[in-house]
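User: Please predict the structure of the protein below. I'd like the answer in structure-token form so I can feed it into my own downstream comparison script.

Assistant: Understood. Taking the following sequence of 198 residues as input:
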Amino acid sequence: MMMNPLPASRPRERIIETASRLFFRQGYCSTGINQIISESGVAKASFYSHFPSKETLAIAWLKQREEVWIRQLKERIAQHASADRRIAAMYSMWYDQIREEGYRGCGFINMAGEFSNEESPIRAVVRDHKNRVRQLIANYVLNEYRAVMKPSEFEELVTVIYSLFDGAIIQAQNFMQDWPIEAALKASIKMLAQYRAP
């Protein structure tokens, strides 16, 4: 799977790999520690030596998922010289994720939705991740527009492109179809045309 690039062999890796599969398939709240221990094939003592709680496991999984996802996104956009092609490369992440994981949406948003407390460490991890994605779009996808636009206009462009991109996978999950991704990609490219090309 795209988000599990290495085979899990050590206990900690097996636990995270199992949690990734179960959290995505069942949700955080519906997945118990005993099920994770059973399906990962580790002893209970081994589990708790790595993760004192299910929450710490969830945070470790989110951080690992982010590391892989951000690296792959950077690799894809680095292959293209123009902003429109870099945007298309961004959206290719969603198509590949659906092909490999199904219409399960964004693992970060899914996880955040299970925590009503805004002060939850999980919610903080998700917010940090989304902020990093937005900054990546500003610095790697749209950076050449920064020099030819007013700061406020550039920030608006970044926010719109980010919102379309991030919202696309959520609506694809909702409708169980690809068209929200296709529509968001077209809208993103059209948005670029409204600004003077560098």
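That's the full token string. Residues 1-8 have pLDDT under 50 and may be disordered.
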